[in-house]
Amino acid sequence: MKKVFVTGINGLLGANLIESLLSNGFFVKGLIRDKAKFKGKNHANLQIHQGNLFNDLTPLLSDIDFVIHIAAETSQDLIQYTDYQKINYNATVQLFNAAVYCNVKKFVFVSTANTLGYGSLNDLGNEQKEIKLPFTNSFYAKSKLEAEEYLLQNKDKIEVLIINPTFMIGAYDSKPSSGKIILMGWKKKIIFYPAGGKNFVHVKDVSSGIIKSLEKGKNGEKYLLANKNLSYLEFFTKLNFITDQNPIMIRIPRPILIASGYLGDFIRLFKIKTSISSTNMKALCINNFYSNEKSINELEIKYQHTEVAINDAVKYFEKKKMEHR
């Protein structure tokens, strides 16, 4: 039985990945800061370990075949690059070196699609394209890219794979993280949407892709796990159909988004946390589109329809709402 060490097990991807690993016959060790807050189910082949990424993790890695590193600082309101670098780069380097010391076979780093260049529907972004504006100004994307570069420079020590998922949707988004976009439109009489678009992917397909990469992934390669390229209007239209609602749809003019972004930049000068920034607002105005051709050809992923991902997310939030009544 292959043994896997996973970080970030309480997040959207981590929770789904743990479930998929166990159902595929892996033995899993998961790292979490507080065991009492683990939201998953108990399993004979699952060990939950309390700790943080800066602990000495070599005792946990001594019998591990694969490390899948998901844990990251993803907040959009932090002020300085070092706020992201600490977790997304420094902790990654420390974990990687622990994996090397323990002779782990493969280190899988879950990054973000935004470290790769996006494109239009006629010229999709792919694994060969370099990061582009506005993400070159994103502290989150830059810290992830810095970690990618370090790992690829050290791929001769142990095998390294970079997973670059796009915008994930699905169940078990307890925080919520990307699921906020569902809550922005669900049961709303008016939906305000930006002009741009992005690539959406079912979180279960990302989990499946990561597991397939353990066998089929090639050392030093990046894999975009992506599915459907949609404008925000198209996405909310699908959400409206699935939830049987008919809200008023109002597009937010690009100048208003950009102006609010610069206002956010000004507020940040006073060390006030806000997710509103020129970088984040510009990201809402572009078509952030990607290709999944490489992951289909090399990892043999079969992607599900976006409607399935939306429906799974909605059902999860409905269940969660019922539980809190």
From TrEMBL:
NAD-dependent epimerase/dehydratase domain mapped to chain residues: 4-224
An annotated Gene Ontology molecular function: aldehyde dehydrogenase (NAD+) activity
Cited InterPro entries: Epimerase_deHydtase (IPR001509), NAD(P)-bd_dom_sf (IPR036291), NAD(P)-dependent_oxidoreduct (IPR051783)
Pfam hit, one: Epimerase
Entry-linked SUPFAM superfamilies: NAD(P)-binding Rossmann-fold domains
GO cellular component: cytoplasm
Listed name of the protein: NAD-dependent epimerase/dehydratase family protein
Source lineage: Bacteria, Pseudomonadati, Bacteroidota, Flavobacteriia, Flavobacteriales
